[in-house]
Write a structure and sequence with these properties.
The chain is α/β, with parallel strands linked by helices. It has twelve helices and 13 strands.
C-alpha cells in the first residue's frame, strides 16, 4: 500500500497542537505521527496531505517547501459545528524524479477515492494537479476540473510539463477522462490570445476576475458540477500574500474563502487542492490565509445537501421550456431552491458520460430560456457531447 511512503506530520506541529484546547482543530484532527503511525481510515471524510514537490515550477531555483506554518495556523482555528472525521496523513516528499512524485500522488489519492475519502491537498507547484487528475483514472469516469487561477495553464504541450502547462497535458494525454475544464478568475493580460481562442474551441468555461468579483454567486453552479477543484494562491492579490512575486490584482481573502466554501458545499467535489504556497520571510499571512481557505472548504462540506439524484426526487419541480427547435428541461430542488438543466447526451456516445445528464444552472438561466435565450453552458456541454 502506497500509504507507507507518507512522512509523518512534523514534531513542531504535533507539539504545538498538544498545547491547544479541545475545541481547536489541532485536538480534533487525527494525525499521522512517528509514534502512532497512520490513522485508521475507516469512516474518515477528509484526509489532509502535503506534497512537497515544486521542481517543475517555472523559475525553480532549488527552493524547498514546508507546510508547517499552514498546519499550525489551521490547527489553531476552532472547529465549526461539524460532524466530520478528519485526518492529517502527513507529507509526500519529492521522489527521485518528478514523475515518481506524480505516480505516488496518483496511487495514494486513488486509494483514498476508492474509500470515499476526500483528499485535501497542500502544494507545491500546481503541475501536481496533473497527478490529482490522474488519480481518477481508477474510477473510470469522466471528470470536471475547476481551476481558480489568473492563468489558463494550457501552455505548450510539446514542451515538458510545468506549472503553467499541466492543463494542456491533461487534455492531450490518454486516458481521456476530462469532460470539462472551468477557469475562475482569469486575467486577460496573463493569457495569450491563442490560449483564449483554444478555450473557446474546446467549449471550456472561463470567468474573468471582474465578472466573479462583481457577483461571487456565479461560482456556485460551476462548483456544483466539479469533481476536482484546484486553487492557485497566485490568483490572490499581493496584499493577501506578502509574496514579492504576487500580482497586485486578484481575489481578496473574503472572496477566495467564499469560493472554497462553494467547493465544499458541492455534492460532487471529491478532491480539493491549494497550490503554489511559498515559504518566504513573511509567510505567516499566506499560511493563515491558506488555513482559512481549508477551514471554509470543510465548513461547506459539512453542509452538503446530497442532491446528486435531484431529478428522481418526488419533491423536485420540472419545467419544460421551448426555445426555437429545442425543448429545454429545467429542474428545481424544493429543498434548496437550486436549479439544473438537462443535457441531451447522445445514447451511442461514451458510457462514462451517463451520469452527466444534469448540468447545474441558475434561476437566471431559466428566465433567459423563457425569453428564448439558450444558456451558454448548456450549449457548450451539448456540443462537447456531439464532437
Amino acid at each position: 500500500m502506497s500509504f507507507e511512503f507518507l512522512s509523518p506530520v512534523s514534531d513542531l506541529v504535533t507539539e504545538h497542537s498538544d498545547l491547544l484546547t479541545d475545541q481547536q482543530l489541532g485536538k480534533q484532527v487525527a494525525m499521522h505521527t512517528e509514534a502512532e503511525g497512520i490513522p485508521d481510515l475507516h469512516q474518515v471524510d477528509v484526509a489532509i496531505i502535503g506534497i512537497r514537490e515544486n521542481r517543475n515550477a517555472n523559475g525553480h531555483l532549488g527552493e524547498k517547501v514546508s507546510f508547517d506554518a499552514i498546519r499550525t495556523s489551521l490547527y489553531e482555528l476552532y472547529a465549526g459545528n461539524w460532524n466530520l472525521n478528519i485526518v492529517d496523513l502527513g507529507d509526500i516528499f519529492p521522489g527521485e524524479a518528478v514523475k515518481d512524485t506524480y505516480f505516488l500522488v496518483q496511487e495514494i489519492l486513488g486509494a483514498l477515492l476508492q474509500k470515499n475519502v476526500i483528499p485535501l491537498l497542500l502544494g507545491g507547484s500546481q503541475d501536481l494537479v496533473y497527478a490529482q487528475y490522474r488519480s481518477f483514472d481508477i474510477l473510470e469516469q469522466m471528470v470536471n476540473l475547476v481551476n481558480v487561477d489568473s492563468r489558463f495553464d494550457l501552455g505548450d504541450t510539446s514542451a515538458p510539463i510545468c506549472n503553467t502547462s499541466y492543463i494542456g497535458k491533461i487534455i492531450i494525454e490518454q486516458p481521456y477522462n476530462l469532460f470539462n475544464y472551468s477557469n475562475i478568475g482569469y486575467q486577460t493580460y496573463f493569457n495569450s490570445q491563442d490560449e483564449i481562442d483554444l478555450m473557446e474551441r474546446l467549449f471550456f468555461d472561463a470567468y474573468r476576475l471582474g465578472e466573479v468579483i462583481s457577483d461571487i454567486t456565479v461560482v456556485e453552479p460551476i462548483m456544483r458540477d466539479a469533481d476536482i477543484v484546484a486553487i492557485d494562491l497566485g490568483a490572490m492579490e499581493a496584499s493577501c500574500l506578502n509574496h514579492y512575486d504576487a500580482s497586485p490584482n486578484g481575489f481578496d481573502g473574503r472572496e477566495i474563502c467564499a469560493i472554497a466554501r462553494y467547493a465544499g458545499i458541492s455534492d460532487k467535489v471529491k478532491s480539493f487542492g491549494v497550490y503554489e504556497f511559498k515559504n518566504a520571510k513573511h509567510e505567516a499571512t499566506a499560511a493563515m490565509l491558506t488555513a482559512q481557505i481549508i477551514w471554509y472548504f470543510i465548513e461547506g462540506l459539512n453542509y452538503r445537501s446530497h442532491e446528486l439524484n435531484v431529478k428522481n426526487q418526488a419533491t423536485t419541480l420540472h419545467y419544460s421550456v421551448p426555445v426555437g427547435d429545442e425543448v429545454l428541461s429545467f429542474y428545481k430542488s424544493d429543498k434548496t431552491g437550486r436549479w439544473w438543466i438537462e443535457i441531451p447526451f447522445v445514447s451511442a456516445g461514451n458510457n462514462k458520460l451517463k451520469r452527466n445528464t444534469l448540468l447545474p444552472c441558475t434561476y437566471l438561466d431559466y428566465e433567459r430560456a423563457c425569453n428564448q435565450e439558450i444558456p451558454e453552458r448548456w450549449y457548450k456541454a451539448k456540443r462537447k457531447n456531439e464532437v
